[in-house]
Inverse folding.
């Protein structure tokens, strides 16, 4: 591209290719050693009985059969889907509401946006511990508030019940992730020309009609990005459960990645864990493909 | 797609225009009040934790909780010290891993981004495809084999090993970002540089690098936040508390002696862990937003 009009000697092309490769080499090495190699190894390991100590032995698809028939894996998968759906529905609704609220210019907007985004910069592990400190039975401020408002009886342990534990983790997740999704939606909404809204107003469209007929269809792309972001981060949830619920009560809040972690680093069964990993990758790929299809379908229909 | 919809909506809209109502811009009491209330709700957990970090032990562990401490003390910040590590160690470890990740990610991504944007060489499409395709494979799924690789390389219990992993998994975004930044540098500038005697390679440090500085800051910021906050790989790869990052030290504080939690100590640790990120973000947020626009626009 740079050399149209000027002819380069062949040695120049060779030098260009060599320089290009040289510049890309560090990235290539990192990707090869820390991504491609583990990726291929993981595929291989999944067909072996691979104890942490001792010699691996080939077992074919035994691991996969064991994973897919383990009721605990089914439970973890089901719980992960529930958590993902809960976070996505609540997250999309709240971020859409917040985006609509803080998009137009008003005094104090920057400060409010910054505060709403701030929790996103906190890691999931400290965020989980932060909510643990706030909601434990003994010293937690949230149960204390709930009790004083008459919403909960004295001595309520929110972590004793799967339902309330799940609600708590979902609230924590939405608090932590909403800043990002809100911002993506604001960026999408900002790209809608002001004239479109003006025209709608002249046509007598009310707020709801404007939202459903104009804003939503025009932000389909950022909206589907938000859903993809939420689904992928929550489907792979681990830190927040490790710190906040430790999988309890009775292992009812073990996510798929938590299950994978237990298989690999608690039960030390690497081959089995590797096959869980392959299943996770397959599910994630399916979600991504489904999402892309959905987006294409919507675009093609218009 | 979006462009199509926009034009359609604009065409179906009546062809009359009215100047935008400037009176209303900037005066939205309802938005201000509602926004402030929600912002305070979002701020509450952070403020509660910071206050908790300075409570005397008896008040930090009181039941029911004490809202405002009788005095502010620093004792809690000494409670996270382990057998071989202290809070200062953990902070230094986190800083080391994060800065190493930032350095490796930016240098590697700048080089690769320049190569992908400005050079033609065999295999570049495949290489770029694999790098960006990493986004489809979540790294927690690779942890088992990655751990095995790290054992082979002797990089467990190593902050450098951790930084190499973090950098690698930042590359899809970082390389993509840098390639776009280099592609948006006007062709004429590069040609002028070549006429002035620069090669394409020597034009990078002399001329082009300054032009893509915003992209570099964005990449560095994302790398810093990701490395500072990463938990799972650090949990698996670090076993000696002298090497712990803050994230891992916190979990150990949670599982304190005799299974009791010192809430003041925990909140002090959370405060030290979360504040740097919040501050870094508040200072550099426009770079974060520009990164998002670049990431979500495509």
């Amino acid at each position: 591209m740079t050399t149209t009009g000027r002819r380069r000697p062949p040695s120049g092309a060779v030098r260009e290719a060599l320089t290009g490769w040289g510049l890309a080499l560090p990235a290539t090495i990192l990707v090869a050693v820390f991504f491609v190699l583990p990726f291929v190894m993981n595929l291989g390991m999944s067909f072996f009985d691979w104890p942490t100590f001792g010699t691996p032995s080939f077992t074919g698809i035994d691991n996969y059969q064991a994973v897919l028939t383990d009721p605990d894996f089914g439970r973890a998968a089901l719980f992960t889907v529930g958590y993902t759906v809960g976070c996505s529905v609540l997250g999309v609704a709240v971020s859409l509401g917040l985006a609509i609220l803080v998009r137009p210019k008003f005094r104090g907007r920057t400060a409010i946006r910054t505060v709403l985004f701030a929790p996103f910069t906190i890691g999931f592990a400290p965020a989980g511990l932060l909510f643990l400190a706030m909601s434990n039975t003994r010293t937690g401020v949230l149960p204390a508030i709930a009790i004083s408002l008459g919403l909960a009886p004295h001595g309520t342990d929110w972590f004793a019940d799967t339902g309330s534990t799940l609600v708590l983790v979902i609230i924590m997740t939405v608090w932590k992730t909403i800043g990002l999704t809100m911002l993506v939606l604001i960026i999408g909404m900002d790209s809608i020309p002001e004239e479109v809204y003006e025209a709608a107003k002249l046509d007598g469209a009310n707020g709801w009609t404007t939202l459903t007929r104009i804003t939503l269809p025009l932000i389909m792309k950022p909206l589907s990005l938000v859903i993809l972001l939420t689904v992928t981060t929550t489907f792979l949830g681990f830190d927040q459960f490790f710190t906040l619920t430790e999988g309890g009560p009775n292992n009812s809040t073990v996510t798929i990645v938590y299950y994978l972690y237990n298989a690999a680093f608690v039960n030390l069964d690497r081959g089995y864990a590797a096959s869980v990993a392959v299943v996770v990758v397959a599910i994630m790929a399916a979600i991504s493909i489904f999402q892309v299809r959905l987006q294409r379908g919507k675009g093609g229909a218009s | 797609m979006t462009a199509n919809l926009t034009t359609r909506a604009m065409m179906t809209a009546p062809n009359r225009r009215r100047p935008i109502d400037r009176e209303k811009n900037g005066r939205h009491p309802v938005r201000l009040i509602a926004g402030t209330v929600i912002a305070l709700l979002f701020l509450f957990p952070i403020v509660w934790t910071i206050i908790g970090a300075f409570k005397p032990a008896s008040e930090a562990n009181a039941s029911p909780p004490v809202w405002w401490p009788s005095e502010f003390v620093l004792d809690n910040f000494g409670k996270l010290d382990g057998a071989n590590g202290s809070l200062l160690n953990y902070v230094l470890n986190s800083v080391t891993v994060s800065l190493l990740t930032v350095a490796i990610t930016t240098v590697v991504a700048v080089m690769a981004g320049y190569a992908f944007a400005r050079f033609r060489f065999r295999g570049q499409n495949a290489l770029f495809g694999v790098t960006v395709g990493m986004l489809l494979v979540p790294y927690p799924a690779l942890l088992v084999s990655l751990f095995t690789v790290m054992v082979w390389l002797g990089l467990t219990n190593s902050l450098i090993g951790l930084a190499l992993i973090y950098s690698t998994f930042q590359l899809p975004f970082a390389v993509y970002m840098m390639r776009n930044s280099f592609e948006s540098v006007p062709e004429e500038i590069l040609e002028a540089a070549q006429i002035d005697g620069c090669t394409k390679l020597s034009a990078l440090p002399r001329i082009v690098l300054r032009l893509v500085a915003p992209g570099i800051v964005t990449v560095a910021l994302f790398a810093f936040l990701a490395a500072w906050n990463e938990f799972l790989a650090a949990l698996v790869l670090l076993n000696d508390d002298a090497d712990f990052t803050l994230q891992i030290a916190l979990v150990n504080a949670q599982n304190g002696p005799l299974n009791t939690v010192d809430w003041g100590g925990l909140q002090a640790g959370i405060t030290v862990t979360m504040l740097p990120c919040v501050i870094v973000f508040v200072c550099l947020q426009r770079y974060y937003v520009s990164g998002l626009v670049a990431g979500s626009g495509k």
Notes: The longest helix of chain A spans residues 10-45.
